Give the backbone structure.
Amino acid sequence: MVALSDATMRAVVICAGSLAILFVILIFVFLFAEATPILKEHSLADMFFGREWRPTSTPERFGLLPLVVGSLMLTVAASILAVPLGLAGAIYIAELASPRAQAVLKPFVELLAAVPSVVYGFLGLTLLAPLVRQIFHLPTGLTGFTASIILAYMALPTILSLCDDAIRAVPQSIRLGSLALGTTKWQTIRYAVLPAARPGIVPAVMLGIGRVIGETMTVLMVAGMAGTVPKSLFEPMRTMTGTIAAEMGEAARGSTHFHALFLVGALLFVITFIINAIADIAIRRRQPR
Amino acid sequence: MQSVSEQRENQSPPRTTDKPAVGSVGSGRWVLPPAPARMQVIGLNLYYGSNQVLRNVNLDIRDREITAIIGPSGSGKSALLWCLNRLNDLVPAARVEGKVLLGSEDIYAPDVEVALLRQRVGMVFQQPNPFTMSVFDNVAYGPRQHGIKDRRRLEEIVEESLRKAALWDEVKDMLDLAGTSLSGGQQQRLCIARLLAVEPEVILMDEPVSALDPISAYKIEELMLQLCNSYTIVLVTRNMFQASRVATTTAVLMGGEVIEYGPTEQIFESPRDERTDNYIRGRVG
Amino acid sequence: MTAAASPSGTGGAAASVREQRARHIRRQRAVERAAIALLKVCMVLIVAPVGLVVGYCLWKGWRALSWSFLTRPPVNGMREGGISTPLIGTFYLAIGTMLLCLPLGVLAGIYLHEFARPGPLLRLIRLALTNLAGVPSVVYGLFGLAVFVTTLKFDTSLAAGCCTLALLALPVVITATEEALRQVPQDFRAASLALGATRWQTVRLIVLPNALPGILTGAVLALSRVAGETAPIMFVAAAYYLPFVPKSVFSPVMALPYHLYVLATQVPRVPAHVTWGTALVLVGLVLVLNAGAIVVRQRLLSRRRW
């Protein structure tokens, strides 16, 4: 194996490593290249403040507000459910569960994270949506509320698992120190352990939220995909991801609609980029300690 | 630094009565006067699972003095210390037989509130373990958790505790800094201040200086001698010279048994047990 | 309040402090009980729905499961028959994807852990990696459409799907490789280098063999992720319905997750057991892969003695 000299292989692995950068740049370039043509026909301001998304009507309308508001509402609603629940589950598993219960619960949660999103969407569609329709007496069960519950359960494993890691990483001496001052176990968890784990909990929550924003199939199948800006969580709504998935198949290549969908994709790319960068900085900041 | 012998002189001269009072220890020229016992360990057995760690330990902790527990590693020193504020409850398979009296109450009685016990019997650990919060919040942690909300009152307590722990002058301008950013010795004194803020009666010290440099260690020893004027201190240490410098009474633990207990000077100068003699001369452990 | 300074004092002040603390701790114990009860409720809220759903899924889908369901293609507008073509399609997609991204990902992981030195390039790569890992999968689909389908003229095909999914799986493989390399003790490298081996020889002969099980575990996890993805292949590779298995890498394929989506939303009057059976097979496939990887990882961790 002298043929593959050290220098050659070094060059090869550097190239492989640098590919990640190349791919990010390529994604960026292609998304924006396919998105910009729409600006010839619709101004950015018109689209960002447009309240209707009707790509097939005449005249076609590409208001992004329904998509952005929908994504926002779903993300907030899902986070309100998933973050406290995930944190509570992590506290329970890390601090209260018996070793045997831990050994079952942690892998169980990790398996949950692996279930394909189309399956979650299917379950939401067939089990949860009829339930929501009946309970709240709605014309349809395919609402933002339904989708946000499913989304919350999809983000739960990420949040729970990473929070659990963060809580476990808190040294035992912190717990002993607090208990030795005569506090209860709960006081110790709440006022000594959680503050110490916070640097790890913040990125966990960010990554969970990132997963909600990027989730496509569930929203596509469960959220109802309305074309207007939703007024309440109990209405059908659409998101950026769901819109792309639903309409890219029908949009003729090179049409305005096609470019509009790429614009939505570019917007998504930028949003997730920012969220990930923040989470990344938060993670890196805790490492030196 | 007030030496041990000076302290001795401040106390009433040794009485040799035919009826030795509770707490009178030693023999010959090393007899210590009777003193109220703050804690008493009576017939204590400790098991970790099927492994017996402490065997029939009997020990008096004299009020407002330093009692040292020495012995080779693995002799059960720390385990004994952890029994005194029931931190051993946290070890899953630990089981305790016997009594530990605080004043006249058995701390292992079924109706004892462990948290209240630990407020009265606090602990300083081998590794300084400040919380990941500011110096102020570290010291205010105990009082806050025990119901004090008034900011003024907290500030008073923090200053007083830091002064008692001989740390105030070093940190008074950086109370907002993270407790973990202090030096090792300062961190340990911060942990002592954090404990003093809870106003304990007994302070258990589990090799409090073994992780520190000599100068920091010296400061903490000095601090112990000051604190024992108002607090009862139990010191676990591997460093025999430290025990001889600060402790009034010393117990020697070996294989989970107290093989010798008496005035520190007697232990070091005229041990009655051969094993103590060997240990002190460095032939064991 | 300086009761501690006179601990033996039984003065009124000390007694009242003790009483106050006793009252406070009783309150705190009540808070503690409530908090723990609440945490338990949360845990039930997390676990119970999942348990119910899994049970329901098994109950509904079990009837459909049979050898012929797995080996026959869907017929009669996908309302009858089996799922052989989507199953095989997913298999092709997964294998093709791994063939593309495994070598690249492992090499990149080797670079990051064995060769890279801290500096702007490394930081940039790390930033790119976190970003790639966080990009929504549907955006990968857009990228695949723009690059592989349109620009490179693969058309909607197995090849375009594999390339797109390979990009998506790349961060997973790289991270897993790095993690596996990190498990190999530094001493091994030092010993090899001290014997005069070059860096690459050390990596190839010493480090990689020891890291291989870990890398494979990561690869299986990536595989299961790829097998379950729908959004990125919807307009890049997947066919709504095909009566046969693709003959070339440039023809479209059916894929199991997309097939489930189609059955659930696009085809009217599909018998429930067909849809549930499809869902059950998909979940089973992914979970078996994952559970296998988790078990293997635990084994490796417990067996390792160095």
Summary: Confidence is low (pLDDT under 50) at residues 1-10 of chain C. Residues 129 and 171 of chain C are 6 Å apart (CA to CA). Chain C has one domain: 67-71+79-303. The first helix of chain C runs from residue 12 to 61.
